[in-house]
Amino acid sequence: MYGWNGLFLRVNLSKSKAASKKYDAKLAKNFLGGRGFAAKILWDELKPGTDPLSPKNKLVFAAGPLTGFALPSSSKLVVAAKSPLTGSYGDGNIGTFTAVQMREAGYDAVIIEGKAKKPVVLLVQDEQIEFLDAGDLWGLNSFKTEGILRKVYGRTAGVLTIGQAGENLVKFANIVCQEGRAGGRPGIGAVMGSKNLKAVVTIGSGSLPVAHPKELKKLGADAYREILTKPPYAFWKRQGTMMTIEWSQENSVLPTYNYREGVFEKADAIGGFAMEKITSSQRGCPKCNMTCGNVVKDYYGRESEIDYENVAMLGSNIGLGNLRRVAALNRAADEFGLDTISLGNVLGFAMEASEKRLIKEKVSWGKVKETKALIEDIVYRRGLGDMLAEGVRFAAEKIGGGSSRWAMHVKGLEVSGYDCHAAPAMALAFATSSIGAHHKDAWVISWEMKVGRESYSSEKVDKVIEFQRIRGGVFEALTVCRLPWIELGFELEWYTKFLHAATGLEMTWKDLNMIADRIYTLIRAFWVREFGKDWTRKMDVPPARWFKEPLTKGPMKGAKLDSAKYDVMLSKYYQKRGWDERGRPRITTLKRLGLEDVAKKLKKHVKLYN
Fold first, then answer.
1. What are the structural domain ranges in the chain?
2. How much is the pTM?
3. Alpha-carbon distances, residue 392 vs 21, 212, 400, 432, 565 (angstroms)
């Protein structure tokens, strides 16, 4: 094999044992890596109904055939497990030295099961695996933990940690590295905490097997130069994703006051231009030349790396219009190891619940000190925080009072930073995302603003699927960042060239789209298997607020989604995907995608149709 190492590292924390295992080359050709590997491993190895926070759940770190090479944005790592937040497949990706070091250590994935008897750090140094006592690190935040480990293992070692949120099994705890890079929105950090695994340190000294080294080296150098020539590059370097605050405000999609509105009266104070005035430095992932992390001094004078999602969710969505104060909440989330998107949702939910007197606690909009205290209560599961630590779906079920209508989630995962009162294609993308309401798989909203936001057309369904294939399928499996393509217009043809030079395989985008469909349908099968007869098309419907409560401000005042038209659009989506009217993969579709074994297993749990 070229491109792939051909080895998985399997770790059993209960027994303090680890061993490398070869995997079949067909797995690489059929699933590529990253999300593809993670989905296949979890489908094959987890029994339906496995408790996500039990030792039987498996934590997977997976890379792809382009990971670690000198190629643009090629240091992504997929972190996956059965999600404690949604009860089904969950993953995220992180730009991290761990991706590079894991591959150079000889592994394409690390699969962790069991539970350590006491807190440990897993140390992977090529073939040498150690389980180190982490008693002194348990209870520390992610920044302090990483700092201590970096003093021992160096600046370029791969270090993944959890903060106190993961230790305390907050359902939207994530995994953190490099003081601000984070991934695993559906509670993958809680899974890590449930295993008493405080950190993973990875150091590799090997080289990656490559089919055409000279060709790959030239392609990489040419591609890095090409990125610098793209017209949007200069402005991107100034603002990164923060430019999206102004764009979202102009298009009335900026989440405001728990997604009641799409415009915020203080948007200018938290946008990209406001950020430029206080930026102190920038950070990026390894192997990347389009740095997206802007570092500012927060309200307390500490550094905080901000981007669009965390500013929208911890700013406008909770009524906070001061960027340094938003940065302070973001810094707290990163230290504790909390997903900022879900955090902004639960805070907005709590503020609205307080406003409507559904809870006894007073939680005001836009108060930084009060909000920071509530964040600490969530992390340490105190009082109201204990309920919010379970996510908005659980909180709505707990307090009632019609709050489920404005609990902003799909399948238990909180909506990320785009209001969809007047964006039906993006609403469909959220609703059919493979992990719950996340923009990563299909960020179609920019395209939708250009072609017309009112329609519920087949063209929009096609675009959602197209983006899910590219972003949620191919990029997540290769495993590389989508930003060069979606933000700068870096051509997709580069990736088939990269893949050929690395692996020797001649794959077209038609071939890659087939692999993407295979991965996406396998993940859907995982969801259907977990929920069985309880699975219905209602699982693919966005929050009721977007249908029932029109916008009252901004250029789209009066807009809301049309439930009947959305339902027709969802049926079109199912038809084009080859799924039945309940959103379950058809037997013929599973066979066409080479998933006959999945069909056999799935038929034991639900009725499937041809």
1. 7-203, 237-417, 445-489+508-602
2. 0.97
3. 40, 50, 12, 19, 27
